[in-house]
Amino acid sequence: MKSILLTLCLLVATLGADGAEAVYKDSAAPVESRVRDLLSRMTLEEKIMQLNQYYYGDDGNANNLVEYRHDIPPTIGSLYFVGSVQERNRLQRRAMTESRLGIPILFGYDIIHGYRTNFQIALGQACSWNPALVERMYHYMARETRRSGVDWVFTPMIDVAHDGRWGRISEGYGEDPYLQGVMGSVAVRGLQGQSLATDSTVASCLKHYVGYGASEAGRDYFYTEVSRQTLWDTYLPPYKACIDAGATAMMSAFNNLCGIPATCNTYTLHTVLRDSLGFRGLVISDWDAVPQLKNMGYTDNDRTAAAACLNAGVDMEMVSATYMRYLADLVNDGTVSMQTIDDAVARVLELKFRLGLFENPYTRNDYGQLYLTPNMMECASQLAAQSMVLLKNDGLLPLDTVGKKIAMIGPVAKDARSLIGNWAGYGRDEDVDLLYHGIAREFSNRSEVRYAQGCDFTETTNETEAMELARWADVVVLCLGEKAAWSGENGSRSTIALPRCQEQLLEAVKRSGKPVVVVLANGRPLELCRIEPLADAIIEVWQPGVNGASALAGILSGRINPSGKLAVTFPYSTGQIPIYYNRRKASRGGNQGRYQDITSNPLYSFGHGLSYTEYTYSNARIEQADQGWMATVNVTNTGQRAGDEVVLWFVSDPFCTITRPERELRHFERIHINPGETKTCHFEILPLRDLAFPDENGKLILEPGLFHISVGDKMLDINI
Ligand code: GLC
How far is the CA of 287 from the centre of ligand 1 (A)? Predict the structure, then answer.
């Protein structure tokens, strides 16, 4: 009897008054019409359910403090989903057949740099300066993710960060707003493709909106002092770029933004995001962020928190269920309007329609090999190679290794997890090609390679063994770095130096008198002031993913010419933080305003990265063009090896009534140049796009006067 009644309800619910099929069921109808029709059929309770994301499954993430749920109602809007395709389809079938309206569940998860096939972390991706390659990586990531039962990923993270003590600097694309925007945009395009209604694309989610990277003292979840001016000129540009690229969703941040938490900040969530940036997509809270308004002292109860967040513009609540508990009551007493509810539900439904979930709610499980395919592994290796940065080279590299003995020493030489980093999704250690194996393969026919650990990440283990091996060797490859868990969420550190035991291992190995290449695997800029003088060469590999070993080996052997450039400044020491290239000028120069005890210069600047060849810049010129100006420069490879050069163009407005940073990146391109070859590079300068500057209300201003355009060691001037 019950099933008959349910069927009847379903039938009534999905037919229009005239008995025809309901518009929302009609895949040929415009999405707007389907949303409007479905909304008109929903009860308040059904609407509220769509604004909730429950946690299903357990991924062992120590920061996910909310208990996961077993009792999943078929009317739930979304799941933070940890599970198999079979599990997804079981839950989805209940939603499609047991709920009155048959609204599919939206399955989301943190797939950040790979579902199972982990690629280079975002901070490393940015150092490749290769947007096309990064887009291809996200395309592969989206395909393995969607075909594994996840429709929506909480990626890309585009928080500008100036403080390496903040562990989440690893998750974004560095310190520059323009580069964050370019890389975030290609991530969005790679993830979403031309349509979301495919089995190879997923919905993106920009995060963490907004200003999270300004966390005081580099401490996660902490207060952020971000003036309106800085909000517009530093933290919002990546969001504007990614919204323009078609991002479908946004995640509100944990931080307290100048006294009003980002998750209930009406100015940023409504006035800026909806009115100024024109974002029409769904906004979800960060994990448990709604009730955390109590911790920040914004309110003392969840009911007020739920009202504040929804009214400010957070459509869906991630896992904390205050919307579930209080929204009906808040609507009934008028604190939250039905229009607010309908607007939020409409954005959830629109995303589900665009994903094609009503027509294809289930995931096939007959795809064959999804992970670690040859194309994906080739992409992972290429991206790893192009993102590795040669920080120092006294001439030791590439290694002359015929008949040589190579000692591989250090905690990272045979460690897997430190190569795939944090937020590794379903990544597995056994998938990772270890650095030791990559180098042993690369030099197998000409050298002997041996290994000793020397120390683990935090403790000396067997320094004697390491020193004996160093004495045996002709050259030492010392692999140091961070544990995966040391960066990412809740990964704040008081110093960006490596643990002392790792520096001591270098000192010990150096006493052997042999040349040492230091290889670094880490998720943040490091303090290398004690390491740099002892190393003959230093290579930053970041956390290169499952296939970084052959890339590193290729750089050591010279098979690959290193081409990565830093997307984040490496301070000389932690005490210099915050330090970043696009700072504003001081009121005094010379020795005034400089540290009295250490240098005031970084160890390695934004854009730094060495090659095995040399490039010269010449014949820089600028001509008036239709829309603005065309700047041009010739770049010549004056060395003996072919290589990729990353050409960076900066603008400077030396005098402006809103003082500008010393210089600002506005264009770049990565070009391949053969020995002796010269290539011409262009930067089309559009005044409003490239020379204007936002004021504290986001209004672009362009004051007449002198502008410098700099590229390589050349500078060009224009007057407007
Ligand atoms: C976490 C992170 C966010 C992540 C979300 C789901 O706390 O802040 O980046 O996407 O919650 O895990």
Answer: 6
Atom of ligand 1 nearest to the CA of 154: 10
Q: How far apart are alpha carbons 679 and 332 in whole angstroms?
A: 68
Distance CA 486, CA 672 (A): 35
Atom index in ligand 1 nearest the CA of residue 61 equals 12
Which atom of ligand 1 is closest in space to residue 171's alpha carbon?
9
Joined together, the tokens standing for residue 101 give 């309206």
Residues 525 and 570 sit within 8 Å (Cβ to Cβ):
yes
Q: Please report the pLDDT score of residue 69 as a whole number.
A: 85
Q: Whose CA is nearest to atom 10 of ligand 1?
A: 154
DSSP 397: P
In 3D space, the residue among 346, 366, 344, 299 whose CA is nearest the CA of residue 85 turns out to be: 366
Q: In sequence order, what are the beta bridge partners of 527?
A: 497
Largest CA distance in the chain: 89
The neighbouring-strand residues paired with 260 are 257
For ligand 1, the distance from its centroid to the CA atom of residue 155, given in whole angstroms, is 10
Does the CA dihedral 396-401-403-405 come out positive or negative? positive
pTM for the full model? 0.96
Query: What DSSP designation does 485 have?
Result: G
pLDDT (0 to 100) of residue 479:
98
Give the helix/strand (H/E) hosting 123.
Answer: helix 122-126
**Closest protein CA for atom 5 of ligand 1:** 287
* Percent share of the chain, pLDDT over 90: 94
- How remote is the CA of residue 458 from the centroid of ligand 1, in Å? 27
In the set 163, 286, 302, 415, the catalytic residue is: 286
> Separation of 482 CA from ligand 1 center, angstroms?
21
Q: Which residues have any ligand 1 atom within 6 Å of their CB?
A: 63, 110, 154, 207, 286-287, 489
List C-alpha distances in Å: 389 to 393, 497, 593. Answer: 11, 18, 31
pLDDT of residue 706: 97
Collect the ranges in the chain with pLDDT lower than 70: 1-20
User: Which atom of ligand 1 sits closest to the CA of residue 110?
Assistant: 10
Q: How far apart are CA 666 and CA 646, in angstroms?
A: 13
Q: Which residues of 640-650 are buried (b: 16+ CB within 10 A; e: fewer)?
A: eeebbbbbbbb
Q: What distance lies between CA 412 and its chain's CA centroid?
A: 23
Is 521 in contact with 541 (CB distance < 8 Å)? yes
- Of all protein residues, whose CA lies closest to atom 7 belonging to ligand 1? 287
Which residue type is seen at 619? N
In this structure, the residue with its CA closest to atom 8 of ligand 1 is 286
| Nearest residue (CA) to ligand 1, atom 3 | 286
What local confidence, expressed as pLDDT, does residue 555 receive?
A: 98
Question: What residues pair up with 460 in beta bridges, in sequence order?
Answer: 455
Which positions ≥6 away from 368 have C-beta within 8 Å?
none
What is the pLDDT, as a whole number, of residue 68? 84
Quote the pLDDT of residue 21: 80
Peptide bond into 675 cis (omega under 30): no
Using only C-alpha atoms, the chain has a radius of gyration, in whole angstroms, of 27
Q: How far is the CA of 158 from the centre of ligand 1 (A)?
A: 13
Residue nearest atom 11 of ligand 1, based on CA coordinates: 287
Give the per-residue pLDDT at 66. 86
pLDDT at 84: 97
Q: Which atom of ligand 1 lies closest to the CA of 253?
A: 8
β 206-209/404-409 pair status: unpaired
Placement of tokens 């009792």 in the chain: 71
Round to whole Å and give the CA distance between 659 and 654: 8
Give me ligand 1 centre to Cα 269, in Å.
18
- 456 belongs to the catalytic site: no
